[in-house]
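protein under study:
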Amino acid sequence: MESSNRDHLANERTFLAYLRTALAFIAFGFVVARFSLFVREFSVIAHVNIPGGNASVVFGAAMALFGVVVGIYGAGRYIRMRREIGRRHEAPLADWAAASAGLVVAAIGAVVAAAVLSVR
């Protein structure tokens, strides 16, 4: 059975979704890292000492690096799927990849939620 154009186009859409997700992580990581600059400026203007200013830099850099990993993984998955489509084999997402991605996103959500709640 021949591979259809629909299969290849679906693979390309999935790859583009990986790239969008990677760019979102990188951009959000940049914003989080720059938040420490805002916190420093605010503490100088308000004459208040706000602890944990460097945490946002570390967390933002980690998010940006995770975005890079997502982009690389997406490219590898696209290439693998393209080959498998040509051979008409299935290549489902590995369990470890789904579980680790879910855990990283959950951890990011927990850290952001904790940071938001601690501002009160």
